[in-house]
Amino acid sequence: MTGAAARPIPDFVPNAAEPVREHLAASTDLATFLRGAGTLTLDERQLIAAQALILLEQNYVHLPLKASMYAVNPVQRLRLLIHRLERQTPQNMPPEWMFHSELSEIFHSVRDLHTNYLLPEPFVGKIAFLPFLVERYTDPQGVHFMVTQVAEGFSAPGFKPGVEITHWSGIPIAEAVDLAAARFAGSNPEARRSRGVQSLTVRPLRIHLPPFEEWVTVSYLDEDGTKREFRENWRVVDNLPAFVDADAVSGMAAAQGLDLEADETSRAKVLLFAPRVVAQAKAAAAGEPAPDLRADEIATTLPEVFRAREVHTSAGTFGHLRIFTFSVQSLEAYIEELLRLIRLLPDRGLILDVRDNGGGLVFAAEFALQLFTPGRITPEPVQFINTPLNLRICRKHQDDPQINLGAWVPSMNQAIEIGAVFSGAFPLSPEDAANAIGQQYFGPVVLVTNARCYSATDIFSAGFQDHRIGPVLGTDQCTGAGGANVWTHGLLADLMAGDPDSPYVWLPKKAGMRVAIRRTLRVHENSGTPVEDLGITPDKFHQMTRADLLEDNADLLEQAGRILQDLTPHSVLVTGATAADGALRLKVKTTNIDRLDVYVDQRPRASIDLADGQADVTVPDAASAQSARLEGFASGRLVASRTEQFR
Predict the structure, then answer these.
(1) CB 456 within 8 A of CB 258
(2) 455 in helix, strand or coil?
(3) 453 with 461: CB under 8 angstroms?
(4) Which of 58, 237, 401, 436 has the greatest number of beta carbons closer than 10 A?
(5) How far apart (Å, rounded) are the C-alpha atoms in residues 594 and 608?
(6) Does 267 share its domain with 303?
(7) Is 427 helix (H, G, I), strand (E, B) or coil?
């Protein structure tokens, strides 16, 4: 057994990968870190609890649903907590961790990863970690928990990717995962279990209490089947910075759909296990070539967001585009890079992979859908819960150009008379913007999801399925089921700034809270169905294998390739456009299309039948046209659409 607990600085820290070595060198062991915790006064605890009551009682959109589904009453629990705090004194109040524990438990009781209590300093921006990652797979022998990543520089006898964990601090690993899962607020068992596995080695301290144990004892089987064991301290370090300030009043902050725990964990995993992404991000910011790029990868200016490459399967060669997050600093830069990447990928089919994507900017999710379908995108509508406070907020900002809330005001005014629980439902994403670019990828697309897809990624997956863009292939039986737009306590306080009757008071020591403020509803055949707690059920299921975890998703990509092989590609391409004798002449090449409709400057001008995929289209009196939209049909169904701009 190695004596990790006896050494102040583990060997792997000075031997970490160069792009993150200096960052990790500032880490400390958990016990040392916790000596600086526990400074909230009794008055500060009372203030935090009182503000939590306001959010859950007057802003929280899912309160009726959660009370019904889980038989919980978080509002009454907060009232009891406030009552007990009023009876305490600075001398007899319990340790601070007990206050954090109870408040976190109240928030977790609603099983909503949008609705969180965020711990104050010194936990803000910190992660607790062990220098390896554990993941779960299944085979005919049952469920296994395997090491898949080891931080550069870390070593233990026979310990490397592929070893199987058997016990965790003396607890059989499956039971240890279930115990960890019970602490999480996932909306379904698969989401909680998935997060339980992840939390074994990475824990964002702002979302969850720090581990009670200062170290863990890891029991495992090496590649020869020999039983081994080592002990490793939890360490604490600053996480990589977040991409968006969710507290400042802005259109971006008001359109967030983000699982903060997943976002924090994703950035932590980059720091610990993907230092090459850190190096690539630094190079992109400096305008330098991407270092350490794999042979099959396409360089990207947003390596924290995208990974694009060709994959070769027995069914053919396809594109694989991983979208790690929708949390982006610039919507324009994100869309521009997404467009560039999909144009460089093979056009025979695309594996669009959003596993582990905790969401982010709802606009980033919904604006992307149009690129993969000829149909018009209908963004998901959202609703407030009708409360006097929500109505005050909407009235105050009904003409605000940044976060125009005017659409919801009439129905909320009417609710005073008719007693409606929810406001009217209106899109968060502007419909014109969600259709401004149109289809850009013309091959078939399969979407890959799992139980860690949440929030804006749930919205993206729902839109993908509702618009019938392609099949959804899930590695779990459901997505994370987070269907809401989330606002922070800081944003709410800013929105009511200047109002002498504002109920919001800034929280002490950078404590925070988040609340699901508007719930999302699905569209088309699923119109009106809430996303929260139901999530998106995949059309096809893939159980992760050992080869998937050790060989870069080999079996998953193989199944996705077989799905794409059975789908028919459809495309429209304008190979020439000229204006002569007052007419617009277009040379068109198509694939698997039997009818072509032509719109010039948004007006229908021609419709022709196709036999060989080639067409010369002449539109009289259109020489000065600004644009042409060509819609391709197969057996009466719209299957491809391309817009050409001429001016």
Answers:
(1) yes
(2) coil
(3) yes
(4) 237
(5) 9
(6) yes
(7) strand
For Cα atoms 172, 176, 179, give the angle at the middle one, nearest 5 degrees: 145
Which of 533, 565, 597 terminates a domain? The answer is 565
In a domain, 5, yes or no: no
- Name 231's bridge partners: 3, 217
| Structure token pair of residue 237 | 């370090």
Which of these, 509, 385, 645, 518, lies nearest to 99 by C-alpha position?
509
Both 625 and 529 in a single domain? no
Same domain, 628 and 548: no
Tokens of 102: 């109870």
Question: Residue 423 in contact with residue 383, Cβ under 8 Å?
Answer: yes
Same domain, 561 and 597: no
- Inside any domain, residue 299: yes
Strands in 222-315 per DSSP E: 227-233, 235-238, 256-258, 297-298, 306-313
137-147: per-residue pLDDT in tens?
999 999 999 99
pLDDT in tens, 550-572: 999 999 999 999 999 999 999 99
CATH of the domain at 578: 2.60.40.10
The residue behind tokens 């060709």 is: 310
Q: 3-state SS string over 348-392?
A: CCEEEECCCCCEEEHHHHHHHHHHHCCCCCCCCEEEEECCHHHHH
Whether residues 406 and 261 share a domain: the answer is: yes
Query: Are 534 and 634 within one domain?
Result: no
What are the φ/ψ torsions at residue 58 (nearest 5 degrees)? -120, -15
The structure's pTM equals 0.94
CATH number at 338 reads: 3.90.226.10
- Separation CA 643–CA 469 (nearest Å): 18
List, in order, residues 6 or more apart from 150 with CB less than 8 Å away. Answer: 131, 132, 133, 159, 160, 161, 273
For the chain, the domain total comes to: 2
From CA 253, how far away is CA 103, in angstroms rounded?
25
What pLDDT score does 300 carry?
A: 96
Q: Based on the fold, state whether residues 456 and 594 are members of the same structural domain.
A: no
Amino acid 418 reads I
Residue 295: per-residue pLDDT: 87
Give the residues across from 515 on adjacent strands: 487
Burial-class residue 103 by CB neighbours within 10 Å (0-12, 13-18, 19+). buried
Cβ contacts of 553 within 8 Å, gap of 6 or more: none
Q: Which parts of the chain have pLDDT scores under 50?
A: 1-7
Q: What does the pLDDT read at residue 32?
A: 92
Helix (H, G, I), strand (E, B) or coil at 492: helix
Question: Are residues 538 and 444 part of one domain?
Answer: yes
In Å, what is the CA distance from 642 to each residue of 107, 435, 439, 443, 596? 47, 12, 6, 13, 11
